[in-house]
Specification:
By secondary structure, the protein is mainly β. It has two domains: 361 residues, Pectate Lyase C-like (3 Solenoid); 128 residues, Immunoglobulin-like (Sandwich), CATH 2.60.40. Helices cover 4% and strands 41% of the residues. It is built from three helices and 48 strands. It has a 17-stranded parallel beta sheet that branches. A ten-stranded parallel beta sheet has the order 3-5-8-12-17-22-26-30-34-36. The longest helix has 7 residues. The protein is elongated. The N and C termini lie far apart (59 Å).
């Protein structure tokens, strides 16, 4: 996890093109600007406040307010995780870090800072985004909390009002929480976001709701999406709901929600229902290219919404791990139920609950590699480490894109009359490999293996030809000496394979003997046509 956290902070500093020809850089501390707020107050649109590594406390270094200015407040190098760690705004439980409520837009930027020790009543222990839409990037938001004794309390780390269109990118959001007594709703230990907010390329870990008391109505230990929101390319792990009636590491209430290319794993709860993602009254929620793998929870998804769609995702327990209390679940294409084979999800200490040392990169044998939606638009996207989102033709599931070399496996095809031990008979099989990667395959020998990268999913379709009727498939795993583990598949359906080993496939036909018969093999994706003649 330490490697992943450090790699997260690798994207360049946001550069603001202001209306002035030259922006003024105001350094803190300096004789003219002893505090961060004094430097902000001297700025006009386009200026930068550059903060030297140090720990900043007291009045003028907390409850920071841009006053509507389109400026950047940053460390000396947001690209360097050591600089980010060393540039600390410590609120000392006397206030919060930043307060945005003057109509700030995306050119109001906070970059490369650690914000900690925040405390707020009701909302936003670390950062409060009211009627504003700032950019928060490459920051570490840690150990902040929001509290209340009567009412609603949400957003321990960051809170965004429904009108906000904040952009929260490439941040670590860890160890934040909400707590309260006699309240209506408590949630979003890490973040509370609204319908226009984008959270991308963030690690959201170790956050919680209600850590000091066991009371009901706590939702979203990591994120509370209120009236909607978009979460993309994020790792959400190690978050815990302590409530006796709490739902979801990510809880979504009303609106339209999109969660894509996220790994939501190893989250926990105290009791009652626990789920990785929960929705209530959401108009439409889509979970795409995600990994939902939380062995400590009862189910991976709780649905009480009109329409929830899950597609091209690795869901522990599959469809059976989804609890639908109301509404409609659309179980789409491409979903799998297979151990994602993270590099080291328990870490060197062997404990999945200590998320800091866990490694959630995909290992070379992960079934999630190249298993995402091939029809998605990933232009310009990067994964949690800043690597290009598509590395091997198709996108991966989860927050990490595997960028190392992939092993290749062979698929060999045999077409015979059922029960026949002799040579080929007449049949027709369409092989749709999606990507035929080895140009050295012999186009004149349909029995020649064709090679695919690990995780590729060729689709085989057998066709009746004349009085030659397709009857069944038989698979052999060539790496398994006991291939009886792969019985006959007595069906006329198409055959879906995952290339995680060398496969031999038999397509069996029911037909009479013959003289000279024609074997037809088509490679549908490439439009290649191979004709050979064999004796029956």
């Amino acid at each position: 996890m330490n490697e992943q956290a450090s790699l997260l902070l690798t994207v360049g500093v946001v550069i603001i093109a202001g209306s002035q020809a030259r922006a003024t850089e105001r350094y803190v501390p300096s004789p003219n600007y002893p505090t961060i707020q004094s430097a902000i107050n001297a700025c006009v649109d386009g200026d930068e406040v550059i903060i030297e590594p140090n720990t900043y406390t007291g009045p003028g270094n907390r409850d920071l307010n841009f006053g509507g200015r389109a400026i950047t407040v940053r460390s000396i190098d947001p690209n360097d995780p050591n600089i980010v760690t060393a540039t600390i705004i410590d609120c000392q439980r006397a206030g919060l870090g930043f307060y945005f409520n003057c109509g700030e837009g995306p050119n109001s930027v906070v970059a490369g800072l650690t914000i900690t020790g925040g405390r707020a009543q009701w909302h936003g222990g670390g950062i409060y985004c009211g009627l504003s839409s700032p950019t928060i990037t490459h920051c570490h938001i840690r150990d902040n909390f929001a509290w209340v004794h009567d009412g609603d309390v949400t957003g321990g780390g960051i809170w965004c009002r429904p009108e906000s269109a904040a952009r929260i990118t490439h941040c670590l959001i860890t160890g934040n929480w909400t707590e309260g007594y006699d309240m209506n709703i408590s949630g979003g230990g890490g973040l509370h976001i609204g319908p226009q907010v984008l959270v991308s390329n963030c690690v959201i870990a170790g956050n919680s709701v209600c850590p000091d008391n066991d009371v009901p109505n706590h939702y979203g230990s990591a994120v509370l999406c209120y009236w909607g929101g978009t979460i993309r390319n994020c790792l959400i792990t190690g978050n815990r709901n302590y409530s006796c009636e709490g739902f979801g590491a990510v809880f979504c209430f009303e609106g339209v929600v999109s969660i894509s290319n996220c790994a939501i794993t190893d989250n926990d709860r105290l009791e009652y229902w626990g789920s990785a993602v929960a929705s209530a009254y959401v108009d439409a929620m889509t979970i795409q290219n995600c990994i939902l793998w939380n062995p400590l929870l009862d189910e991976e998804l709780f649905v009480y919404s009109p329409s929830t769609t899950v597609l091209y995702s690795d869901v522990r327990g599959g469809r059976n791990s989804v609890y639908v209390q109301g509404g409609t679940l659309n179980w789409g294409d491409g979903n799998i139920d297979a151990d994602p084979l993270f590099v080291d999800p328990d870490g060197p200490d062997g404990d999945p609950n200590t998320w800091e040392d866990n490694d959630y990169h995909l290992s070379v044998d992960s079934p999630c590699i190249t298993a995402g939606d091939p029809n998605g638009d990933y232009a310009g996207q990067t994964d949690i480490d800043g690597d290009p989102r598509v590395a091997h033709v198709w996108v991966d599931m989860g927050s990490d894109e595997y960028v190392g070399p992939l092993p290749y496996y062979a698929l060999s095809l045999v077409v015979k009359k059922w029960g026949q031990s002799g040579p080929w008979i007449w049949g027709a099989v369409t092989v749709d490999p999606d990507r035929l990667v080895d140009p050295n395959d012999d186009p004149n020998d349909p029995n020649a293996p064709r090679e695919y990268p690990s995780g590729a999913r060729p689709v085989l379709t057998a066709h009746d030809v004349g009085n030659k009727v397709f009857t069944k498939w038989k698979l052999w795993d060539l790496s398994d000496a006991n291939d009886a583990n792969y019985p006959l598949i007595d069906t006329n359906d198409v055959l879906y394979l995952t290339m995680n080993t060398d496969w031999r496939v038999l397509a069996a036909y029911d037909c009479g003997g013959g003289t000279e018969l024609l074997l037809l093999v088509t490679l549908g994706a490439l439009g290649a046509l191979v004709l050979t003649r064999r004796r029956a």
